[in-house]
Amino acid sequence: MAREGEDRPLALHARIEQEVENRILSGEWPPGTRIPFEHELTTQYGCSRMTVNKALSELVKKGLIERRRKSGSYVRQPEVLSAVMEIHQLEREVRALGLAYDFRLVERASRGANDADRRRLLLAKPDPVIHLRSLHSAGSRPFCLEDRLISLAEVPQAEDADFSRYPPGSWLLEQVPWSAAEHRINAVGAGRAEVELLDLREGTPCLVIARRTWNAGGSITQVNLTYPGDMHTLVAQFSPTGRAG
């Protein structure tokens, strides 16, 4: 029996928890790393699966790992904090987390604006638009699904832009001046596109930022940015106006 003041040996599940946690926090296992399967840890520590499960459950509670159906447990990516009143480039958001950024153009189509397009861009007539769908990744995990309309009446040079090489949002910020923007924020359940491209279960909570930017000529672009809900938090900072309440 340990005397008063002496360190007591950790229970085995606590030791497993601590050693895995140390590897994560030290950077040895960066975000997106698949940690050893439960049966591998039971062999490594010579213990029951119940003991390993208890350790991993505690790490899930701490937000350090996540369990994915049929594929194991992974080091969780840090949650992204975004200011509501700012327009961020997705690449910068990812790199701020210390993760490798990747981008893939999934779909591109040019057309006269249909009724849905006109509602999204607030167009009075069926002007030509480009519809783009892109997937942004952080490390080994899908980060954000981008669904964007660009008005060719306001941005005719977009017709010749190579959006397979340049993310549309970054290209627009560099090429086209804008004077105003509007954000609308919604929570939705993952549908077919989110299940397929963001690697989510159907109905998984997602955060959608719907943004429209415009200048004196009219709407430039409208984009819906869909994030897995456990990875993104929106932050608004404001000052008192002088009125109570």
Q: What's the helix and strand layout?
A:
Layout: H1 12-25, H2 38-45, H3 49-61, E1 65-68, E2 72-75, E3 80-83, H4 90-96, E4 101-112, H5 115-121, E5 128-138, E6 141-151, H6 168-175, E7 180-189, H7 192-197, E8 205-215, E9 218-228, E10 232-235
Parallel strand pairs: 3-10
Antiparallel strand pairs: 1-2, 4-5, 5-6, 6-9, 7-8, 8-9
Overview features:
single chain, 245 residues, alpha+beta, Chorismate lyase, 2 domains, six-stranded antiparallel sheet, 7 helices, 10 strands, 26% helix, elongated, disordered N terminus
Segments where pLDDT lies below 50 for 5+ residues? Answer: 1-7, 241-245
Give the proportion of residues in helices: 25-40%
Strand content: 25-35%
CATH topology of the largest domain: Chorismate lyase
Total number of helical segments?
7
Could you report the average pLDDT, rounded to the nearest whole number? 86
Measured distance between first and last alpha carbons? 59 Å
Let me know the CATH homologous superfamily of the largest domain. Answer: Chorismate lyase-like
Alpha carbon gyration radius: 23 Å
Number of E strands: 10
- CATH class annotation of the largest domain: Alpha Beta
Query: Could you say which overall geometry the principal axes of the C-alpha atoms support?
Result: elongated
* CATH architectural name of the largest domain: 3-Layer(aba) Sandwich
* SSE-based structural type: alpha+beta
Order of helices and strands: HHHEEEHEHEEHEHEEE
Strand order in space, largest sheet:
4-5-6-9-8-7
Total tally of structural domains: 2
